[in-house]
Amino acid sequence: MSTADVEMSIDAIEAHNLSKDDTSVDSIEAQNLLKDEKSVDAMEVQNLSKNEKPMIPEEALVESRSFFTSEIYKIEVQGLPKFFGVGDAKKFFNKKHCLNVHKFKYAGKKASYMFLNFKNEDDRERAIAVVDGLELKGKKLKAFKSKPAKDPLVRIKQKQALEELKIDNRPIKERILSAVCPLYEMPYDEQIKHKTEIVTDFIKKFHGDLIKANHNIKKMVDDKTLELPTLEEFIKSPIINGYRNKCEFTIGLHPKDRTKVQVGFRLSSYKEGNTSVVNAEDVPFVPEPMKKLTKFFEELVTNSGYSTYDPISLSGHWKILLLRINSQKEVLMKITFNPQLLEDKELETIKDYIKQKISHYMEQDHDFKIVSTFLRFESRTSKASSQLLLGENGFHESLGNLRFKVSPESFFQVNTSAAELLYTKVGELADLHPDTTDLIDVCCGTGTIGLFLSNKCRKVYGVEIVPEAVKDAIKNANTNNITNVDFRAGKAEYLLGSIFKDVKQENKDIDSTSTKVVAIVDPPRSGLHQNAVRTLRASEVETLVYISCDMSAAMQNMVNLGKPESNFYVGNPFIPKRIIAVDLFPHTSKHFEVVVLFQRLKSNDDS
User: What is the pLDDT of residue 3?
Assistant: First the structure.
């Protein structure tokens, strides 16, 4: 998927009641766990996802610890046959359909539903896409996100956290910056040096694992007929401060003055009941127009007569302010509001209030313009779609010579200028030619990479598991009058085979020496499915470019590409030839993109 998902959005955290299947950990176990548990560290902002899907927030009563983490990435599956147990579920979901289910929560012998927990949001999203509508014993399954269970340790942890606050005497500014951008005090060249060391360590491990997996590669390295690549360059972000074109701000209360509304980021992880919020005015990656708008919105909320949402008591209304901005300084705004038990008439009054305040604000002189305002009513039991209050239903942003439509939920890289450098470098590594190259864009998302490189290819084939993203990719192609693209919705492991057949059919009358099939793989955080790797191995692809936002998750994919030919992995292995990195997220410690160029090892290749 597109690297977009690799966003580091800071989400509001909503508390939920116990799910019907959830059972509390008994108090004795809870106390024992606490004996060995270290204090909760400030959570670093993470950039989620690829396809541009942000990471799902941890719920307010779910503690940030490995024991309970998978609760925040849970789905419910309905329509299961009676007596369908955990053993059956493991075979069906993990073995047959290759889902990465971390934990199965059994609801009983006669229950027609079960809960599946995952380690991350990408695995959960993929599971929903695979399972929803799947047939099992004549029944269609339903799959959807489920609420996390209430953590039985939450009250004890909150008490501990309050004690810890007495020890942390750092100024609030320092604490919020440490939480969301831990490298903020480090000069940018030093940040790049820090990230270079992380990538270098990964490359060493990758080399070691690859040599262990393929003794022929080891022999070639020992004979000095093959030199495995090191990091060529770490490309810096052209913009260091104010680079994020999308931020999701929590609406809450100041940690010291609990009557003061703040629109910004959580101060730290689950401290002071996890309700403290600090304004974003000192956070370097937030653009100045967004900082001004958060201050304006603090005033709007304060004067509204409605309180901010409290994820502990589940009371209050104002929850999230999402802001997106393009290079023309046009702003899209989406407000999330919990209606609680308000009547429809009151909700209409709130809409009018928001429209009046924003319209009046934009009558003043600003160096930016709010072109879209959306409102979403979201409660614990229902999440209505966003409704347009003011302006257009989105704006356009440029990437290279292309224009992409951006709406509240659509994916677009959060650092536009760095994304352009990334895509340009990917095209250079792939060595594309408009008369001879067929490009296979695996996990294409909304088509940004394939469309960006389409003028350098004879044809682009994109495959993406999320149907809505494929629809956006087609719209983006039409907007830019690009006709040499073919986007398809479905799982890569199922569609790649048919795509390669189509490529072969279209090129049947062309001399094979004048054709080149290149694959660009930009998977979600969890990596590419094993069967998709096998299909790529067995294909006509000679050049493969792998883009990773999570090197540890991508490791197995990369090693499998280089394993020796076998009955399982048909086709000669791919050998890494070049490695570069691109910094899309200055001031964060572990967020960047690594790009690896693989070339097919020919049978007589001794280099």
Answer: 40
DSSP 470-504: HHHHHHHHHHTT--SEEEEES-HHHHHHHHHHHHH
- 160 annotated to bind ligand: no
End-to-end CA distance of the chain: 32
**246-406: what fold?**
OB fold (Dihydrolipoamide Acetyltransferase, E2P) (2.40.50)
337 token code pair: 């509001």
Listed as ranges, residues in the chain with pLDDT below 70 are 1-69, 150-168, 268-274, 511-513, 604-607
Known binding residue 413? Answer is: yes
- Residue 400 tokens, joined: 């290279």
Strand partners of residue 138: none
Residue 191 marked ligand-binding: no
Question: Nearest to residue 149, comparing CAs of 91, 222, 67?
Answer: 67
> Cα 113–114–119 angle (5° rounding)?
150
Distance between CA 126 and CA 547 in Å, rounded? Answer: 19
- Pairwise CA distance, residues 308 & 312, whole Å: 12
Specify the domain boundaries for CATH 2.40.50.1070 within the chain.
Answer: 246-406
Give the C-alpha separation, 17 to 585, whole Å. Answer: 35
- CATH class of the domain whose range is 190-238+413-600: alpha beta
Whether 549 is catalytic:
yes
As a whole number of angstroms, the distance between CA 241 and CA 152 comes to: 41
